[in-house]
Each structure stands twice: as C-alpha cells, then as structure tokens.
C-alpha cells in the first residue's frame, strides 16, 4: 500500500521551500513530502553560484521597462518583491530563518549605460520612476565623479568620449537564495516534512480515487517506488515541463521550453571586491534573451564577498545542469511542436546571438568585462558555469517571465519560466494557493496577512504606506531603507 500525503513537493529549490513553509503555517496538520533528485537541496537554480542573487525589484533591470514612460511592469515586480521581503522578515522574527546577514545584504542597485540613445532612455526612465513611491530615492547622474563614488570599478581609467549615465537605488539587495532554501527546508524537516534526497520523480498518474500516484526512482540503487498525494506541486526548474507532461493534464499542452545556460567571470580579489559594492545592470545585446542582460554584481555568499560579471550565454540541450542531453527532444509533443518550430523561425536574432556567444574566447569575454571595468586584469577573474534557465515557449512566442500552470481542479500545479523567479517566490506561491485551494484561501488570508502585512494591497498607490512598509521590513532584515 502506497503512503499517502496531503502534499508532495517535487524539487528542492526555493519555490518548493516557500510553498512548504506557507502550508506549514496555514495547515500544520497536513502531511507533506518533498522529492529532490540530487543529494542536497538548492543545487540547481537556487544555488547562489547558479544565479546572480539580485533581489529583483526592477530597480536596475531595464528589460522590465522597455518603454521609459510606462512603469507598470517595473512597479508590479517591485510590489511582488516587497511581499517576499515581508515573508522573510516574519520568518526571521519567528526564528525560522537565521540572522538576515546569512541570506540578504544591502547592496545598491545601479544601471549604467553608454551612448546618446541609451543615456536619453535612462534619463527618461529615471524621470518616470522618481515619482513612483516604490522607487523613492532613485538617483541619476552623468557626472563621472559621482558615478565613481557609487562604483569605483566602473570609472577607474575610463577614457573620455562616448557619453554615459547611471542610476542608483541605495535600498537594493543581494540575496543568497541557496541559504534561504536550506534554512527553510531545515525548518520543515524539523517540523515533520519527509525530505527524500537522491530521489527522482519519473511519472505522475491520476488514480481512480482522485489521488495522484507519484512514481519515483532512487538514484542510488535505482530502486523504484511510489506514494500518493492529494496535491502535487512541481517546482523542478527546467524539468518541471517533463514532470507536468507526464501527468497528462491538458493545461500543459502547447508549452515548450528553450534551455539557455550561462557563465560568469568571478573575482574574489579583496582589492576589487572593496571597490564594488553594487549590482550594476546595462542594456542587453540585440537578440539576447532577457536573462542575459550584462551586469556586474557584488555578491555575499557564506560571509565572503566577490564580484561577478556576465552572463555569457551557453547552449546545452539539458533543462538542468545535471539534466539529460535528450531533454530538449523528449519534451516534443504534437501539441507544442508547431509553436516550437515557429519560435525557431521567428527568433533568428536569438540564434545569431547564441552562436556569437558560443564562439567567444576567454579573451573576448574579458573584453566584454572591460566595457564595465576598464582597468581589468584577466588574471584576477575566473570563469564559472551558472545554472540552466528554461524559457517558456507558447503560441509561437518565446515568453519572458515565470508562469504557474495548474490543473482545472487545482490538484496539481507547476512552475515554468525563469526571471524574476526566486525573488518573487512569495507572491508566486500565493498565486498557487489561490488557484489550487480556493475553498480554503479566504480562511487563510488573515494568517497570510500576518506574515506579509501588505498582502492584498497596492503599495505604490500610497506613498506613506510604501515608505512605512519598506522601512519596517528593512529594519527587521537589518537593511538600510
């Protein structure tokens, strides 16, 4: 007889950890299990070296605001990130998360552009955002002396010539999502969650009793097994599409994903780390996918500072770093092949960009870094492999964002897509709860609002409320507002 769980979480990343934590607060009596195919949690997209750790609040990311006069998307992303911050602050107060400095640190968010066209764009963007309550305190400058104060590495030995400009928001953050994930899972395991590591979910099948049969195989010994679940959440990164397709739900039809990998240049040279205490984003190259916007990021992981530059796009047919070379082929279905072929034909700029990236030598990558750090010594920088991102393809289009796919009856849900991803884990999981547990959700709202006080409101419409919420959360997380 298979063991039966109220909830089964597939994937040991920040999404499963966040949903499990919320459910523990809302329904502590529920029986929950989590399956992770690797030997530890937080080893794929949530691993700190597989992402740039930017607490995505649209403070510096230009791809969230292609029209400098339209802040709607940027404001929406910022609203979402505020909920994640509030949840973390509540969990710190409860002792569920450790000291804030173990996972989040104040790191100004900057944007740096060059050339008359981009300078004009950035100035227009600044003029729009400076009047938005959630972007209060944003600064703009074209003065090399001011920008040097903000980020010395950017300006040292920079030659005069092409115009440049920068914006800066002091209240930005660097987040170690691996630490968040591990700490949340530690709490869940202590509270009774059955965490099964080295266990790969192979198939989901709906039984006549209405329960999901979760079929798995232990990676050590290859022994198979199965459990039953009333609700299944698939937070398996790029592999989510494979697991959801195995379930047979009609909602996954038409979806495909396109894998894009990345590399970063990283330095731990103390002299360089001391000169760069910000996350600096710029404009993406023509044809580049949204998650490939170049940026120079200060990082704090396990108490040690470093600086990363990239990403440089790579290509692998795998949906995860530890995935299968057949991933990109085995996702093909009659329902999605037409859409995928259309994406291939209509995204020739992306193909050209990827080919160019794949042909780049280390020297060319150092040249790319030199656009941000003029006084660069390649010997100070090592090349590291980042995580795989699976960008959603649907309706013949390559989509940007993170999307919840749920069955009509709410018995299963999964997550597809990449950015803003982990930064908005809390609001994304609220979306899952609302879609999949509509009968319980109203009763859960009071507890959710205790954890995230502004849940259900729009901060950007109320300057005083926005300032107060940001200040309160910043104080609890040890950040300067």
UniProtKB/TrEMBL annotation:
GO aspect biological process, one term: tricarboxylic acid cycle
Cofactors demanded by this protein: FAD
Pfam (any one): Mqo
UniProt-recorded Gene Ontology molecular function terms: (S)-2-hydroxyglutarate dehydrogenase activity; L-malate dehydrogenase (quinone) activity
Top-level taxon in the UniProt lineage: Bacteria
Pathway: Carbohydrate metabolism; tricarboxylic acid cycle; oxaloacetate from (S)-malate (quinone route): step 1/1
UniProt KW ATP-binding keyword: no
UniProt keyword annotations, A-Z: FAD, Flavoprotein, Oxidoreductase, Tricarboxylic acid cycle
Catalysed reactions, semicolon-separated: (S)-malate + a quinone = a quinol + oxaloacetate
Enzyme Commission no: 1.1.5.4
SUPFAM superfamilies membership: FAD/NAD(P)-binding domain
Enzyme class of the recorded protein, top EC level: oxidoreductase
Signal peptide span: none
Family membership: Belongs to the MQO family.
Name of this protein: Probable malate:quinone oxidoreductase
Species annotation: Microbacterium sediminis
Gene that this sequence comes from: mqo
């Amino acid at each position: 007889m298979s063991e039966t769980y109220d909830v089964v979480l597939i994937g040991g990343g920040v999404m499963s950890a966040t949903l499990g934590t919320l459910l523990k607060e809302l329904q502590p009596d529920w029986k929950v299990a989590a399956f992770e195919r690797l030997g530890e949690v937080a080893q794929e997209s949530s691993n700190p070296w597989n992402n740039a750790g930017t607490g995505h609040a649209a403070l510096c990311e230009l791809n969230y605001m292609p029209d400098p006069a339209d802040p709607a998307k940027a404001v929406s992303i910022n609203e979402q990130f505020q909920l994640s911050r509030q949840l973390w602050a509540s969990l710190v107060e409860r002792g569920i998360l450790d000291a804030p400095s173990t996972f989040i640190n104040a790191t100004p968010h900057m944007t740096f552009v060059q050339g008359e066209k981009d300078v004009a764009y950035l100035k227009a963007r600044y003029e729009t955002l400076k009047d938005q309550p959630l972007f209060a305190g944003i600064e703009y400058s074209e003065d090399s002396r001011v920008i040097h104060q903000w980020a010395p590495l950017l300006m040292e030995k920079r030659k005069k010539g092409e115009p440049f400009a920068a914006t800066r928001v002091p209240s930005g953050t660097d987040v170690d999502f691996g630490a968040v994930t591990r700490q949340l899972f530690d709490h869940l395991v202590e509270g009774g969650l059955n965490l099964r590591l080295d266990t790969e979910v192979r198939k989901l099948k709906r039984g006549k009793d209405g329960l999901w049969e979760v079929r798995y195989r232990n990676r050590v010994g290859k022994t198979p097994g199965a459990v039953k679940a009333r609700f299944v959440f698939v937070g398996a990164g790029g592999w989510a599409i494979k697991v959801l397709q195995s379930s047979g739900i009609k909602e996954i039809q038409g979806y495909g994903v396109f894998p894009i990998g990345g590399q970063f240049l990283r330095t731990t040279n103390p002299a360089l780390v001391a000169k760069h205490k910000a996350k600096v984003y710029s404009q993406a190259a023509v044809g580049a996918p949204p998650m490939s916007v170049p940026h120079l990021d200060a990082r704090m992981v396990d108490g040690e500072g470093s600086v990363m530059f990239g990403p440089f796009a790579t290509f692998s047919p795998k949906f995860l770093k530890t995935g299968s070379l057949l991933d990109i082929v085995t996702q093909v279905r009659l329902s999605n092949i037409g859409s995928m072929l259309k994406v291939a034909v209509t995204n020739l700029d992306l193909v050209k960009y990827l080919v160019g990236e794949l042909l780049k030598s280390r020297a060319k990558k150092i040249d790319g870094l030199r656009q941000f750090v003029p006084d660069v010594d390649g010997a100070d920088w090592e090349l590291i492999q980042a995580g795989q991102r699976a960008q959603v393809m649907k309706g013949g289009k390559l989509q940007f964002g993170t999307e919840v796919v749920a069955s009509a009856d709410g018995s299963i849900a999964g997550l597809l897509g990449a950015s803003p991803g982990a930064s908005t884990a809390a609001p994304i999981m609220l979306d899952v709860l609302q879609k999949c547990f509509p009968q319980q959700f109203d009763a859960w709202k009071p507890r959710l609002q205790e954890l995230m006080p502004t849940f259900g409101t729009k901060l950007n419409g109320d300057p005083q409320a926005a300032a107060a919420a940001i200040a309160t959360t910043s104080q609890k997380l040890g950040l300067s507002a």
